[in-house]
Specification:
Length: 203
Amino acid sequence: MSEITEAKKAARARIRSARSTLDVAESARRAEALGRVLEEHVPARARVAAYLPMAHEPDVRPFLTRHLRRGGQVLLPRVADDPVPRVEWVSWAAQSETRRHPVLPLDEPVGHARTLSDVLAEGPLQMLLPALAVDTSGHRLGQGGGYYDRMFAEVEAADLREQVSAWAVVGPEEVLPAGSFPVEPHDLAVDAVVTPEGLRRLR
């Protein structure tokens, strides 16, 4: 295992450990605060691609439910069962069915799925990305699966990057100085970071 891989693994372990100490009340408070920040900055009728949180991830569900009520659209990710796993996108409503992934610790939407390139062909998209941390240069530390890195590489190759605004969602203590974790050429850089305390544009 390379030094970079080891350093990323250690950074992920530290952040996951810290996240696990948040109690239920604080997690709920953060979710509501995060929802208010997102409502302030995301247009009411925007198309939003987001996520269903895994354990201890920042919870965007209060915002997604309210975004639907104000006329917006929401898409959620599903991991396609391909030789190289990739993320695909399913339109979501508050009562939509979800299922547990057979291997990964996440819930996924049920329904017709499309690639991100297909979604972007219909127009601009606001994307809320799960992350463990973001540095002030815009580099994102993910969970380590590489799903979003590969997806955005495909979007770049299709010359569709300008169609998507990518915001990482983290806790306020997870916005770190540049250089706090290793960055590799394939790592996704985001346009902004959102915390319960506000939005910070990075690019």
